[in-house]
Amino acid sequence: MKQFITVLFIFVFVISLSAQNYSIRGRITAKESRESLAGANVLIYHLPDSTMKGTTSDNDGRFLIENIKSGNYALIVRFIGYKTHKENFEIQNRSLTLGNIQMDLGEVETKEVRVVEQAIPVVQKQDTTEFSAQAFKTNKDADAENLVTKMPGISMQDGKVQAHGEEVKKVLVDGKQFFGDDPSAVLKNIPAEIVDRIQVYDQQSEQSQFTGFDDGNTSKTINVVTRFRNIKGTF
């Protein structure tokens, strides 16, 4: 009986550890001036499945990302005018402080004093993950399905669109529904060259949207934001 209780205790303890969430924090500064960089884009990717979380640094250059599970991650920090900072880290059953992350200045063209900087590929806006289409290269004749599958966390599984490990139930175009209820058909009918951004989020049920009360039912949704948001009708 004692052995059973001991085994049960260990099992519950291990389960509780695996269910715990942790946090990562740090501070973004300029390497040369040592000034704080407010508004730096900070992203972490869970390496096994490419799920991501992100935030921006505050006025003191500090950032905090919470609700992180144990595992291996990649950190990406971007700030206009500075080189992208990348590093890997591991969460081992405790929160992590990265300390001071120093950013190197990027390339500047002296003729026009123009900062050379790539488009930020992804930002986290509350519950919405937003990808910049310009950051992902596709062929000239590619469609939106080719484009989104190049984005971290989005893939095709058995002919179905998957985002962050869940099946995408609906694809909208500029916030409106086109082509019925087949997400793959929508994406295949949109040329990649007209896409500006891709937004991924959990959309509330129609009842929740109508009543204003959250019933807990959501569906994984992709919203294709086009470069021509004044288009009317269907493609």
Q: Could you explain the architecture of this structure?
A:
This protein has 2 domains: 2-115, Immunoglobulins (Immunoglobulin-like, Sandwich); 122-226, TonB-dependent receptor, plug domain (Ferric Hydroxamate Uptake Protein, Chain A, domain 1, Beta Complex), CATH 2.170.130. Helix content is 15%, strand content 42%. It has 4 helices and 18 strands. It has a 6-stranded mixed sheet with strand order 10-11-17-18-15-16. Strands 3-2-5-6 form a 4-stranded antiparallel sheet, with no helix packed on it. It has a 3-stranded mixed sheet with strand order 4-1-7, with no helix packed on it. The longest helix is centred in the N-terminal third of the chain and has 18 residues, at 2-19. Mean pLDDT is 80; it is low at 6-18 and 230-235.
Comma- or semicolon-separated keywords:
Ferric Hydroxamate Uptake Protein, Chain A, domain 1; four-stranded antiparallel β-sheet; 2 domains
Summarize the structure.
This protein is mostly beta strands.
CA-atom Rg in angstroms: 21 Å
Number of helical segments with 4 or more residues:
4
Strand content: 35-45%
Strand segment count: 18
CATH domain topology of the largest domain: Immunoglobulin-like
What is the CATH superfamily classification of the largest domain?
Immunoglobulins
- Which stretches are low in confidence, meaning pLDDT under 50 for 5 or more residues running? 6-18, 230-235
State the name of the first-level CATH class of the largest domain: Mainly Beta
**Straight-line N-to-C gap:** 69 Å
Helix residue percentage: 10-25%
Question: How many domains is the backbone divided into?
Answer: 2
Query: What sequence of helices (H) and strands (E) makes up the elements?
Result: HEEEEEEEEEEEHEEEEEHEHE
CATH architecture of the largest domain: Sandwich
Mean pLDDT across residues: 80
Shape: globular
Structural class: mainly beta
